[in-house]
């Protein structure tokens, strides 16, 4: 054990993420030309890509998708939602893939009208996080307005403890719907938690050009956020990308390939939400087809060939921390073609 009623619009999630990105960038008072990929000892000039599958534990369809990726040797990192009904099933599946790289999506919202979940801390201890029925708030805005930082911290500790007791050792921490990026005090809780458990948070360090771009968009930069990020000692990403929705699988595939081609050298996480196609998924979520296409992307031979090209190296959060802590000699690397079964020590259940 490690010690110490609609879904938010996509543009809202992006805005919340952008707020965190701004804070991270400002934490660097001097210009750093060196990428995090270079600092971690990856080959010079490489597009180091971390394929991130999210919302594991949501339902059968998400869990089955990640198991398919493990069985087919797709090198990636996963993030599971501890309060969700199928979390125990997901952890159980990891037992057959002990080198799977699995983190936690810290979850403060239950956004699907027909499929809800409650906090893992006692209701009376986190009253500001729940609605009248005892479920986590539906929207990020409700959480932003209502959440008490102490309640957030209690619930996130409960989620990590729940994962530990289930046998999971999370390799990283991310945030569901970007909610922990919605207020500076919640960012502080997030980064404090990551540091206290020594589990990296998914957060990005921006170049001055990127910082200028976000400032031009009018995002605030609270002093508290700056201070929190300045004190954060763990690895950061150079970039964070999302696979956007598309009208067809072919359009989504073309967009993904274009995204990879356009990446700059450095450490980039690409977030996807894969799921197998089954009736229950289509009752739970309103974007089932997009999730099925995300799974298709990850097993598509054309995508696999592009990710195995000479200019790309696939990595995981476990490998990132192994490099950060000196367990992987500088210059050593695992190629994009390497299967999940040969990845470094990971976060799955023993």
Order of helices and strands: HHEHEHEHHEHHHEHEHHHEH
Kindly provide the radius of gyration, computed on alpha-carbon positions and rounded to a whole number of angstroms. 19 Å
CATH architecture: Alpha-Beta Barrel
How many β-strand stretches? 7
SS field, number of helical segments: 14
Gross morphology is globular
Q: Remind me, CATH topology?
A: TIM Barrel
CATH class category label: Alpha Beta
CATH superfamily: Glycoside hydrolase/deacetylase
Terminal CA distance reads: 11 Å
Q: What composes the largest sheet?
A: 7 strands, parallel
Total domains = 1
Which structural class do you get from the secondary structure elements?
Answer: alpha/beta
Output mean pLDDT: 85
Low-confidence stretches: 1-16, 18-32, 334-346
List keywords for this structure.
7 strands, about 40% helix, 14 helices, about 350 residues, seven-stranded parallel β-sheet, TIM Barrel, alpha/beta
Q: What do you see in this structure?
A:
By secondary structure, the chain is an alpha/beta fold. The protein has one domain (10-342): TIM Barrel (Alpha-Beta Barrel). Helices cover 41% and strands 11% of the residues. The chain has helices spanning 10-26, 36-39, 60-71, 87-94, 140-146, 149-166, 184-197, 208-216, 223-230, 249-262, 279-284, 288-299, 301-307, 317-324; strands at 47-56, 77-80, 101-106, 173-175, 239-242, 266-272, 312-314. Strands 1, 2, 3, 4, 5, 6 and 7 form a 7-stranded parallel sheet that branches. The longest helix has 18 residues, at 149-166. The chain is globular. 47% of the residues are buried.
